[in-house]
Specification:
- 7% of the residues lie in helices and 38% in strands.
- Strand 5 (112-115) and strand 6 (121-125) form a beta hairpin.
- Strands 1-23-22-21 form a 4-stranded antiparallel β-sheet, with no helix packed on it.
- It has helices at residues 11-30, 47-50; strands spanning 59-65, 74-77, 83-94, 100-109, 112-115, 121-125, 128-132, 138-142, 151-156, 161-165, 170-174, 180-184, 205-207, 213-217, 222-226, 232-237, 255-258, 264-268, 273-278, 283-289, 302-305, 311-315, 320-326.
């Protein structure tokens, strides 16, 4: 049934009200008497939090690469020091000096990268993973791991591959046919597994120099080490917004990598901080770069360490890969972390 046309009972009154609203809006937006600033209780001053990382560091920024790919999100280096930057429909490869030397087409947006022990390349493509041969041909594309996946990190071993699945909030262990073997990190009181808390699409993992699998528990602001069967070996958490040796925010660190000495390099978002820890104890060692070097709003796209222990940071605000190197003649600063 067609609805009747509605007619207001007092059209002149409605006209007066609308004219008054328009006049008030014009007055507030065109005169000096605009909307008042919020009171002190409503202001969020992060100056004191940013000051936490205002310490000397022996690292300096020594180079920069502007990625020639759309939407760069993934970063990896190979054993020769070449730098792989994954973005929309392509992976651009640069030599250590920053010269582009290769381009690998892919179907989709690259979310993460890793190499297999025999030199093939694995690329996360949101909910899929592509295996790319050394001849750069696509050998396989795996998917349908879960009902809803977002693959944000890959660590490849000889016979098994570990995928950080931010959507499923767990680590998927798969074989080289793309078959899921088991899930790691889901809450299991009987096995003393606390459960991975992944409140945002930032979820990383990596092997250390001994081949042990370390997984970030971003919601708990720490790291956990797992065996392939899902047993948890050890863990540590550092949640304190006021201390440089801890992590701040809802979910950090957002990126991790290991240098040639087996030391853990972490990257945090808002405020951005790149730090180095002793991985087993979780002891803070030094700051690489702090928040003053990054534009607001701050974030990290990805993090990598090359064979010369240069630390590469994908800075989405600058759309660049920034390179930081240590001055070996300068001692690491020991900031007051109390």
């Amino acid at each position: 049934m067609k609805e009747p046309v509605h007619k207001p009972k007092y059209p002149y009154a409605w006209g007066v009200v609308m004219a008054a609203i328009a006049g008030l809006y014009f007055y507030l937006t065109t005169t000096g008497n605009k909307f008042p600033e919020p009171g002190p209780n409503l202001e969020y001053d992060i100056t004191a939090l940013l000051a936490v990382d205002q310490v000397d560091t022996r690292f300096a920024e020594t180079g920069e690469i502007t990625p020639a790919v759309e939407m760069p999100r993934a970063l990896k280096t190979d054993a020769s020091g070449n730098i792989y930057i994954g973005g929309k429909d392509a992976i651009a490869v640069y030599d250590a000096s920053g010269k582009e030397i290769e381009r690998i087409p892919v179907d989709g947006a690259v979310t993460c990268l890793d190499f297999t022990p025999d030199g093939r390349l694995l690329a996360g493509l949101d909910d899929r993973v592509a295996l790319i041969g050394t001849d750069r041909k696509i050998e396989a594309v795996w998917g349908d791991f879960t009902a809803r996946s977002l693959i944000t990190a890959i660590a490849a071993g000889e016979d098994e591959i570990f995928l950080a699945d931010a959507a499923s909030r767990c680590v998927l262990r798969i074989d080289y046919n793309g078959t899921v073997l088991n899930r790691i990190g889901e809450t299991d009181e009987a096995r003393d597994v606390p459960g991975l808390e992944v409140p945002s699409p930032y979820f990383d993992l990596a092997f250390d120099s001994d081949g042990h699998l370390w997984v970030v528990n971003p919601g708990k602001l720490g790291l956990e080490r797992y065996r392939s069967n899902g047993d948890i070996v050890t863990s540590w958490y550092r949640a304190d917004v006021t201390r440089l040796d801890s992590f701040s925010g809802c979910c950090n660190p957002v990126q991790i990598a290991f240098n040639s000495e087996g030391r853990l390099v972490t990257g945090e978002k808002g405020p951005v901080r790149v730090k180095i820890f002793e991985v087993t104890s979780g002891e803070f060692e030094e700051l690489v770069v702090g928040s003053s070097a990054f534009q607001l709003p701050q974030g990290i796209g990805d993090l990598a360490v090359d064979p010369d222990d240069r630390i590469l940071v994908l800075d989405p605000k600058k759309n660049s890969v920034r390179i930081f190197e240590a001055n070996e003649t300068k001692m690491a600063a020991k900031p007051n972390t109390q």
